[in-house]
Amino acid sequence: MDLKLKIWRQVDANAEGKFVTYPVHNISQDASFLEMMDVLNEELVTTGKEPVAFDHDCREGICGMCSLFINGRPHGPDDSVTTCQLHMRKFKDGETVVIEPWRAKPFPVIKDLKVDRSPFDEIIRSGGYVSVNTGGVPDANTIPINKENADLAMDAAACIGCGACVAACKNASAMLFVSAKVSQLALLPQGKVEAKRRVESMVAKMDDLGFGNCTNTYACEAECPKDISVSNIARMNREFLHAKIT
Amino acid sequence: MTKLDSKIPEGPLAEKWTNFKAHQNLVNPANKRKIDIIVVGTGLAGGSAAASLSELGFNVKVFCIQDSPRRAHSIAAQGGINAAKNYPNDGDSVYRLFYDTVKGGDYRAREANVYRLAEVSNNIIDQCVAQGVPFAREYGGMLDNRSFGGALVSRTFYARGQTGQQLLLGAYGALSKEIKKGSVKMYTRREMMDVVLKDGKARGILVRNLVTGKLERYGAHAVLLASGGYGNVFFLSTNAMNSNASAAWKAYKRGAFFGHPSFVQIHPTCIPVHGNYQSKLTLMSESLRNDGRIWVPKKKEDAQKIQKGELSPVNIPEEDRDYYLERRYPAFGNLVPRDVASRAAKERCDEGYGVGNTGLAVYLDFKDAINRLGKSVIEARYGNLFQMYDKIVDENPYETPMMIYPAIHYTMGGIWVDYELQSTIPGLFVGGEANFSDHGANRLGASALMQGLSDGYFVLPYTMQNYLADQINVPHLDTDSPEFEKSEKYVQGNLDKLLAIKGSKTVDSFHRKVGLIMWDYVGMGRSKEGLEKAIEDLKSLRKDFWSNVNIPGDSTGMNVELEKAVRVSDFIELGELMARDALSRNESCGGHFREEYQTEEGEAMRDDENFMFVSAWEYKGVDEEPVLHKEPLSYENIEVKQRNYKTA
Amino acid sequence: MSVKYSSITKKIWMSLMGLFLMVFLVVHLSINLLLLVDPTRELYNTAAHFMGTNPFIQTFQWVLFLGFTIHIILGFVLQIQNWIARPKGYKVKATSEDSFFSKYMIHTGVIILIFLGIHFVNFFFRVKIFHTVPDFILNGVNTGMEDMGIVVVELFQNPSYVIGYVIALIILGFHLDHGFQSAWQSIGVNNSKYTPFLKGFGHLYAIFIPLGFIAIPVVIYLTT
Fold it and tell me: Could you say which residues from 492 to 531 on chain B have a Cβ atom under 8 Å away from some Cβ of chain A?
């Protein structure tokens, strides 16, 4: 299949960017979206042009490195996948594909389609863990955990930190990301111990970094490649309320 | 010739680690603050080691090439992590885990290391649960276990199909906690370009800032490499696109010996190759072999019809299916170790019984499991994997059997380390997949996560202290020192040389070529002629690369092609070393299968008399032949047998 | 405000005030409907008089004002922060599946605010400030109460006012449709057991409350 790609090009964080159009030809329907980008880059390099910089790594949908806002959707026109798992069979021959970087104030563009997502790390650093040191912990089966909570915690823990929730949200809110971690740890007895402190400091950090407010549009849930539920946001709100009033 | 000192502690096997800890040197808390440690890589080994060392009070500087420490490739491990907890009461023990690992590794791993690994395996599970890792649980609230290849007990703990992710996020949490505390300084999007030595000791690293393009200098009292494996030398592998061997390779070039370079693991259950644009192979967790049955058609004409798309596998009657693993290995059946399963698949495909349009695939069928357990049970166990398969292949595995084929997955080889995980360069420690230890010639499923975390949480924090105890009075290495100057000049010179070539071929085209050579000659089946050819081909490829590679742009600012070029140039050199190692090992063992050395039934034939040693290679110069050092292996606590998965 | 109160605190207040205003709407509607129930306007005027004079209600009125004010100010603060959070937008408008009305809360909110202003001028200010409401004469006897009913009936003789009122109420419906379930989510009520009920109830609320309000001008316009 042949496609017309409209790609955001930007030399570095300080430069003005612009869209540049590139045609690509003979792309296999079975290729992944990033393999299609590889083909484009190989062509660009061969013709002496600078390839398009985009983040990617594992190419199996788990590292959370790949991003791209494709035709109005983070991770493109398929549900429950990351861009690396998106296949070209989801596009029509001759289609124009607009590829943009994630857009949010806390996620500045580094180059072309790469953005800086380190604010997510900062949020986790503010309390997204259980404060235990190595060693001196009880046997793993000492505290039974009901299966339902363990499963819900796992649902939340599946977050890959890709930032699609922020990219999709009209407010650039990071609530789904933050709530996934808060929820996971709030559901487990190990995390309960410092639950209050955690939710307060993570929310404060999230606000400080300049993410928008949640207005419950649920676009985050619709675009999350790991299907993280917005019920986690409600759980975080609950945890937060609980922390503030008790 | 340097004598390799494995530094295995005295005493009976079960007491070695305890003895070591009891007698090792420690650094007093006030002095720990004065000591800097560099950690390269933030996967399970690097992340957990950095966090644990920082908890002890050391200043730790951590480096990773990704935008966040959470993205290290450990995250992609699916199946699980082994531990000798014996929760299911099925007869497991530290000894049995040790035994299975040594046997699974085809008796090419160090006994003492493996025993220690089995010993601390239980602590890992405790630690991870305390961190809030959501392992799978039973209705009673206790941890669930499943079985994996190469074992007769259920000892694998798991978190759905994302165990690596959950364990890594646990370590990432611990690391984040230490970064907040201030004793870990995190440097992301940085690639290690060189190890800086002073007086023969590792005292710092030179890194390239991948965003600004600048070379940066960092000094320390010790360096820990946890930069992962080198499976990407094959171009197509289950490794992440940016996984590379360069950090380890630079260490090798600075004097660290490379252990068992030819020992790579081919994973039997990957989605087959489907096109020449393909960039990577996707693994389907080995856990699928618990319920899936592997088969190919019994009749060659059926296989040919399938390859042409004229016949569907669902239409092949039961009696015309060859469940070749169950046939050849009645005791272990579909759960034989990875190397055995991979080779058996290759054997069937080479004989012309393969399926798929390329003929390079076998079926993994869940029909019986669905009939026995119901679709919902299978969905609960493997739903995410089935969905992943469907997305990639566009076929529903609930209805038609999955197609799988072996792919490069893990490298058992790596930088040679002693019992303390220290390389032949004093002060340079190596953990996780980057080192050679523990797995011998083949790694069992769910053991990589165990080894990474064992190294990071429970081994390195002790052994590095043992080294650092007499370094407390060593002053910080000044980054303006001649050692750094020299290193930077060397690295910049290398980058300039690459950029000046301005040839006509892309970096990726070279990567594909080295990958193809490796897969054809240094892959699942190896022969003397093939390996000799590979060495020659790689030599000329290296020449071609250094005269014809085209890297646009310059070394200032971000330059992805330049990053890749450095890695590919190292892969080409490493490939040659792997071929040399494979050529020197005139036996078949584990993942290393020399076609000349096999039994009449096609099983691997070890030569314990002549090859029961660790191959450790010493770098001598770009065009010089490396020197082979041998560390003899002795088995005092385990009876060395030919592996046999036909009977228990 | 934005520095001192976290995003979630603001959202929680926003929701609590929203829910509070929704309760108020029910009370308001019940009284309005009395006009249709009793064309003599006696019931309506009595109720209006009670609301306008009862000391408890009068005190509570200030709480209601406060509720409106908090809801409105927070609405603007949150929206401004949200705009700041994405200084550069996308070329291709997002096409993610989401709660449709949620994207237009500020727009519907501003229209409702304008409507509220007109509403105040027409009713509240007339009775409280301008005192231009006639006395209610029932069967030739001055009841001593204002004839709020007649004010309503006269206003609803104007077709453009009726149309404007209907449009404003439809827009209120849109605002409520998202607002109802969103408020519960913001205060942390989301559970697989009762959230579907809450969502369903919210849709019904957002349809029937505005419909009830709309019925009054329409019936009055068509019958008088």
Answer: 504, 506-509
Q: How far is A105 from chain C (nearest CA, A)?
A: 5
Among the partner residues A211, A214, A238, nearest to C188 by beta-carbon distance: A238
Tokens representing B498 are 């690459």
Show which of residues 45-84 on chain C sit within 8 Å of chain A, judged by CB atoms. Answer: 78, 81-82, 84
- Residue where the block lists tokens 């159009």: A21
Q: Would you state the structure tokens that stand for residue B501, as one six-digit string?
A: 């070539």
Could you tell me the CATH number of the domain that includes residue B287?
3.90.700.10
pLDDT tens-place string over residues C18-65 = 999 999 999 999 999 999 999 899 999 999 999 989 999 999 999 999
| Model confidence pLDDT, tens digit, residues A97-125 | 999 999 999 999 999 999 999 999 999 99
Q: Which of residues 301-330 of B touch A (CB under 8 A)?
A: none
| A62–B76 C-beta distance less than 8 A | yes
Distance from CA of A241 to the nearest CA of B (A): 23
Q: Is residue B198 situated within a structural domain?
A: yes
Q: Same domain for B71 and B207?
A: yes
The number of C-beta contacts closer than 8 angstroms across A and B is 223
What ipTM was estimated for this complex?
0.98
Instruction: Please give the mean pLDDT across all residues of chain B.
Output: 95
Tell which of A149, A196, A217 to mutate to test the C interface (max C CBs under 10 Å). A217
Is residue C120 a contact partner of residue C127, using CB atoms and an 8 Å limit?
no
Q: Which residues of chain A neighbour B169 with C-beta distances below 8 Å?
A: 157
Residues B364, B441 within the same domain: no
Residues of C in contact with A216 (CB under 8 A): 99, 102, 178, 181-182, 185-186
Whether the CB of B51 is below 8 Å from some CB of chain A: the reply is yes
CATH code of the domain in which B513 resides = 1.20.58.100
Band of pLDDT at residue B478, cut at 50, 70 and 90: very high
pTM value is: 0.95
What is the rounded CA–CA span in Å between residue B149 and residue A236? Answer: 40
Does A243 contact B at CB distance below 8 Å? Answer: no
Please give the order of strands across the beta sheet that includes B145-147: B81-82, B154-157, B145-147
Residues B599 and B501 in one domain: yes
**Contacts with C8 from chain A: Cβ below 8 Å:** 203, 236-237, 240-241
**What residue ranges define each of the domains in chain C, with the CATH number in brackets?**
7-85+103-223 (1.20.1300.10)
pLDDT at B2: 59
Question: C129 or B504: which carries more pLDDT confidence?
Answer: B504
- C-beta separation of B47 from B69 below 8 A: yes
Task: Name the residue in chain A with its Cα closest to that of B457.
Answer: A134
Q: Answer whether B136's CB lies under 8 Å from B123's CB.
A: no
For residue A208, the tally of other CB atoms under 10 A from its CB is 15
**Phi and psi for B68 in degrees, rounded to 5?**
-150, 145
Cβ pair C115, C168 in contact under 8 A: yes
Show Cβ contacts of residue B327 under 8 Å, excluding neighbours closer than 6 positions.
none
Residue B149 in this model has a pLDDT that exceeds 80: no
Contact A168 C94 (CB under 8 A): yes
Number of compact structural domains in chain B: 3
Q: Would you give the distance in Å from CA B477 to the centre of its chain? A: 32
Band of residue B476 on the pLDDT scale cut at 50, 70, 90:
confident
Contact assessment for residue C156 and residue C177, using Cβ atoms and an 8 Å cutoff: no
Strand-pair partners of B207 = B192, B216
For residue B136, tell me if it sits in a domain.
Answer: no
* Residue B86 domain flag: no
Q: Which domains does chain A have, with CATH numbers?
A: 3-110 (3.10.20.30), 118-245 (1.10.1060.10)
| B395: containing domain | 268-406
Tell me which residues of chain A, numbers 223 to 242, contact chain B at a CB-CB cutoff of 8 Å.
none
Within this chain, do residues B329 and B383 fall inside the same structural domain, yes or no?
Answer: yes
